[in-house]
Amino acid sequence: MVPLPARVTLTAAGLAALLLPPLTACADSGDANPTAATSGAGIAASSGPTLGGPTPAAPASPAPPSGRTATPPMSRTVPPTLGAPPKPPKPTEPTDRRSTDLIAGHVTRGGSGPCYGLVSEEGVEYAVHGTGAGNLTEGSFVTLRISARSSEVDCGPGIRVRITPR
User: Fold this and answer.
1) How far apart are CA 137 and CA 89, in angstroms?
2) What are the pLDDT digits (tens) for 109-153?
3) Does residue 74 sit within a domain?
4) Model confidence pLDDT, tens digit, residues 21-45
5) b/e for 8-38, b at 16 or more Cβ within 10 A?
6) What's the domain range around 36?
7) Is 64 contained in some domain?
8) Strand partners, 148
9) What CATH number did the domain enclosing 121 receive?
10) What ranges in 48-113 are assigned the alpha helix state H?
11) For the chain, what is the domain count?
12) Of 41, 107, 145, 152, which has the fewest Cβ atoms less than 10 A away?
């Protein structure tokens, strides 16, 4: 029987030589070189002292193995680009709009009717005609439903309108 050394250090080539024969034996190709695989190249036996201290191994090669680069290649995937920012939504019409047939304002010519004067909140002067509207006090704030009226009745200066019943 052959005594075994206390520690065995293998290089990468030596490890490949040990693993290559079982792998090539399973392959059906006749190209395998069994002598290269069983030559035991790369096995280094240490016959140094066995005091339990580590045996210095061969320094690792700083060069990468053949066929590899030192750093992995960058991804070939193109990163997404930022598109144009979304357009702000179109403004919507106000939901609290007042009917176009309503006017609100202060009475400038009052009385029991049928003619009245009114200045709207927007500052527009109206000549209002309305039978059965009752007594409107000068200076009071009112909201009236109106419609256009003919020019046969003159109620003074302003846009001619007629009070319509609700």
Assistant:
1) 47
2) 988 888 999 999 999 999 999 887 888 899 999 998 998 877 788
3) no
4) 665 655 555 554 544 444 444 444 4
5) eeebeebeebeebeeeeeeeeeeeeeeeebe
6) 7-46
7) no
8) 161
9) 2.40.50
10) none
11) 2
12) 152
